[in-house]
Design goal:
Elements: H1 2-39, H2 43-48, E1 77-78, E2 82-83, H3 90-93, E3 104-109, E4 120-125, H4 134-144, H5 146-150, H6 153-158, H7 163-185, H8 191-207, H9 210-213, H10 216-233, H11 246-263, H12 267-301, H13 305-318, E5 340-345, H14 349-361, E6 369-375, H15 380-389, E7 396-401, H16 414-419, H17 422-429, H18 458-461, E8 467-471, E9 475-477, E10 494-496, H19 516-521, E11 533-537, H20 538-544, H21 546-556, H22 568-574, E12 579-581, H23 599-604, E13 607-609, H24 623-630, H25 638-642
Parallel strand pairs: 5-6, 5-8, 6-7, 10-12
Antiparallel strand pairs: 1-2, 3-4, 8-11, 9-13, 10-11
Helix pairs in contact: 8-10, 8-11, 10-11, 13-15, 21-22
Length: about 650
């Protein structure tokens, strides 16, 4: 009886102890079974029992207690290094995965160590397959299965990396990849050229150091290397322009600089030398800029050989003609106010020819256009001969010289009296100036010519006309200009295009507002306008007595205290509040100094103006704009061929 009781107690005790163990073992086997049979080979089972085994790929050995879920994602670099997961069969391969296990995993590669081994860092982050909405689904699933997660210690150990941390790691990796990509793509071009120039500067610094100069052999070798690199560099502006032996020469110079660095280790001396070189370079730059301005002004004043030859050949031909052959046809049209009249004052034959040709070729009715050309005595015969031998279609031409206007003398015109004064001549041609003007353009002798000032005497020169268009000789007409005569100028005298889009085209740039007379009568911020293509209402001119206003201001400026020389400053004053602004498309400026004039503006313009020193007939003219001018000249004309004038 006693034995029976003992047996029953032992059986109950065994059942009490062994049944939980059996249940625990069964559940553990069920949990591990998918991993053992699908993702990893049988070595995992041995590791769980404490048996030593080889490493599985690059993963370190793990015990059952630290075993992590197998990776269901692979790493791939696409579109700037962003990790994309392969999720096509994830749900099918791991059917027994619990809700808490719905976290994707990525493998971020780490650069191989020096010993050749690779370290694979396993991180987790939330799946964002639909743009981030999956995180909400995961949270909902976690809430519904919270009790199951709490009952399994193995499952809780699998969540060793927080969600936010893993997401941050992946974001950092992707951002770093994008940054590296941008850095590679933003590398400055022609780095070899820059590096070579830097090495040359460094070498020149070494040449001036005392310790270097004391070593004659090193100094000789360094100079030789500098010459070799300079020869290799030449005029190259791009890396592709460098010869094949450039690297060899540069490396030789670098080796010499390394030796020099060992000989000179005092940085303060090098700094002083660099400062001295910088100061010297700034002084040279200033001198070169000043010289460039002077040479540009000189080139603008200089007459090319071909343009000197042309009037001589034309004059010789003109005086060989009979008097009857020296006359222009259609002279009865010169005073007809119903026609379209143009005033053009110039001593440049080619420039005048381009203005006339471009206007006639773009006119709808060329026979209705009349050109009044005034030149000096020297170019009178050549100018007439040019248009006699090259008539501009059906248009009418008149050529006069200044001497024909006997009424225009120094007793009538204050500017003529000033231009002939000794002080004015000394200002332009004197060599000893106590206070020379810093702006050389104001010292251009062209301002001594009365041709520049004839524009202020238009009603006196053409008393029978009511309206006239004034054209400079550096203008090219691209469209029909007859629309200018139909503009209602609302009682204004001068129609012009305003140029105040930039600050330096306002009144304070042309007039001396420190003078109380100027400051009292004008606004320093008033908008300037341009001479070159202007329409003048001569009837209103006479009515408002514009010429007398011009004379009064010229008398006040006898000592040049109100403005420097030129025609635009007195024009701004004379036509103050008497200028009608025209549309900018009538007159586009800047082709004689600004290489960045908008090509679209040029195409839309009725006329383009080569104002500035870089005239299209000079060698210093801007090549990109020269074709607009040269297309209106026939370079096969025998006078041009004889004088070797080419496009």
């Amino acid at each position: 009886m006693v034995w029976t009781r003992r047996t029953v107690l032992l059986l109950l005790l065994a059942l009490t102890v062994l049944s939980p163990l059996a249940l625990y073992t069964s559940r553990l086997s069920a949990a591990l079974n998918p991993i053992q049979t699908r993702d990893f080979p049988g070595e995992i089972t041995n590791q769980g029992r404490g048996v030593k085994a080889d490493k599985l790929n690059a993963l370190p050995l793990e015990t059952v207690s630290s075993l992590k879920e197998p990776v269901g994602l692979v790493f791939s670099e696409e579109l700037g290094g962003l990790a994309k997961e392969s999720t096509g069969s994830e749900g099918q391969e791991l059917p027994s995965r619990k809700a808490g296990e719905h976290k994707s995993r990525v493998l971020s590669e780490v650069t191989a160590a020096a010993d050749g081994t690779e370290v694979i860092e396993q991180v987790t982050r939330q799946e964002a397959q639909d743009g981030g909405l999956a995180s909400a689904v995961s949270d909902e699933q976690e809430k519904t299965t919270g009790s199951q997660q709490q009952s399994s210690s193995e499952e809780s150990l699998q969540e060793t990396v927080p969600k936010q941390t893993s997401a941050k790691v992946v974001m950092d990796n992707s951002q770093a990849a994008r940054t590296d990509g941008k850095a590679k793509s933003s590398v400055l071009p022609d780095t070899r050229i820059r590096n070579i120039k830097d090495q040359l500067i460094k070498a020149k610094v070494y040449l001036g150091l005392g310790s270097i100069r004391a070593n004659s052999q090193y100094l000789k070798d360094l100079r030789q290397r500098i010459r070799e690199v300079q020869k290799v560099l030449g005029d190259a502006s791009k890396d592709t322009d460098l010869p094949k032996n450039a690297n060899e020469k540069v490396k030789a110079l670098e080796q010499m600089l390394i030796k020099g660095k060992q000989m000179q280790d005092d940085c303060s001396i090098v700094v002083k030398k660099l400062r001295a070189m910088l100061h010297s370079a700034e002084e040279q730059l200033h001198a070169h800029k000043k010289q460039t301005v002077f040479l540009t002004q000189l080139a603008a004043k200089t007459l090319p050989k071909g343009l000197h030859c042309l009037p001589l050949r034309l004059a010789n031909e003109y005086f060989s003609l009979d008097p009857g052959q020296q006359q222009f046809p259609n002279q009865h049209k010169l005073s007809n106010p119903k026609l379209y009249h143009y005033a053009l004052f110039s001593d440049n034959i080619l420039a005048t020819a381009v203005v006339v040709n471009s206007t006639v070729l773009n006119a709808k009715y060329p026979s209705d256009h009349v050109f009044h050309i005034i030149t000096d005595r020297l170019n009178y015969a050549p100018m007439r001969m040019w248009f006699l031998s090259n008539p501009p279609g059906k248009a009418t031409i008149e050529v006069q010289h200044i001497g024909e206007f006997t009424w225009l003398n120094d007793s009538y015109s204050p500017v003529l009296k000033q231009l002939g004064s000794q002080s004015m001549i000394d200002y332009y041609f004197g060599t000893n100036h106590a206070n020379p003007d810093s702006n050389l353009k104001y010292r251009n002798p062209k301002y001594l010519s009365i041709l520049n000032h004839l524009r202020f005497y238009l009603p006196e020169i053409y008393p029978k006309l009511d309206k006239i268009v004034f054209l400079d000789d550096d203008i090219v007409v691209k469209k029909d200009l007859t629309g200018l005569w139909s503009i209602n100028m609302k009682g204004k005298v001068n129609g012009a295009v305003e140029t105040c889009g930039e600050g330096f085209h306002r009144f304070d740039r042309y007039l001396n507002f420190s003078n109380p007379v100027i400051a009292k009568n004008f606004d320093p911020h008033a908008c300037g306008w341009a001479f070159g293509m202007n329409v003048f209402d001569l009837a209103e001119w006479k009515k408002q007595n514009i010429t007398q206003i011009y004379h009064s201001w010229q008398k006040l400026n006898q000592d040049r205290s109100l403005w420097k020389l030129g025609t635009l400053p007195p024009g701004l004053i004379t036509f103050w509040n008497k200028t009608f602004p025209l549309s900018r498309s009538w007159h586009v400026l800047g082709l004689g100094y600004n290489p960045h004039v908008n090509s679209r503006d040029i195409e839309r313009a009725a006329s383009i103006h080569y104002n500035g020193n870089m005239k299209p007939w000079l060698e210093i003219g801007l090549p990109k704009f020269r074709s607009y001018w040269s297309k209106y000249l026939n370079y096969d004309q025998h006078f041009l061929r004889e004088c070797n004038i080419n496009p």
